[in-house]
Amino acid sequence: MSLQPFHLAFPVHDLAAARAFYGRLLGCPEGRSAPEWIDFDLYGHQIVAHLKPGMEPHKADATSNEVDGHDVPVPHFGVVLGWDDWHALAQRLETAGVAFGIPPHIRFPGKAGEQATMFFRDPSGNALEFKAFRDLGQLFAID
């Protein structure tokens, strides 16, 4: 089975801020747009920022679950990148001064599913996780 792109629509409080964050900072090419929404190409997947008038940015103290000693925000979304692409993105975000909810690190070191991961929020407070595996075969590995 070939992997198909996913589609995710999510709320934002400011389309200009979303365009700067997803387009310029994350480097997502922009697709179609209208006054109320913008399509972005997130590593081959379609994400759509929808303007929600009157929305306040989400607070960082939203629901979380403990995973490997960190409070992982719920909900969140992101992409599994190649190892080198993940490190390049982490460096770009660190250089840009992005505030990480969970800084770039290796999760589950030496165990099944070992991965590089980082969490941060967009300007509307939506939580994102980007991760990578040295061995993509570990994506669904269990102990």
Structural overview:
By secondary structure, the protein is α+β, with helices and mostly antiparallel strands. The chain has 2 domains: 1-53, Roll (2,3-Dihydroxybiphenyl 1,2-Dioxygenase, domain 1), CATH 3.10.180; 65-143, Roll (2,3-Dihydroxybiphenyl 1,2-Dioxygenase, domain 1). The chain is built from 2 helices and 10 strands. Strand 5 (64-67) and strand 6 (70-73) form a beta hairpin. The model has no long low-confidence stretch (mean pLDDT 93). This is Glyoxalase.
Write out key terms for the chains shown:
143 residues; VOC_core; globular; 2 domains; alpha+beta; 2,3-Dihydroxybiphenyl 1,2-Dioxygenase, domain 1
Query: How are helices and strands ordered from N to C?
Result: EHEEEEEEHEEE
Radius of gyration: 15 Å
Using the alpha-carbon principal axes, give the shape.
globular
Mind summarizing the main beta sheet? 4 strands, mixed
In the predicted model, the low-confidence regions spanning at least 5 consecutive residues are: none
Q: Specify the CATH architecture of the largest domain.
A: Roll
Strand elements, count: 10
Biggest sheet: strand arrangement: 1-4-3-2
Broad structural category: alpha+beta
CATH class of the largest domain: Alpha Beta
- How is the CATH topology of the largest domain named? 2,3-Dihydroxybiphenyl 1,2-Dioxygenase, domain 1
When the domains are counted, the total is: 2
Mean pLDDT: 93
Number of helices: 2
Please identify which CATH superfamily of the largest domain we are dealing with: 2,3-Dihydroxybiphenyl 1,2-Dioxygenase, domain 1
Distance between the termini: 25 Å
Protein name: Glyoxalase
Domain VOC: 4-133
Organism: Sphingomonas oleivorans
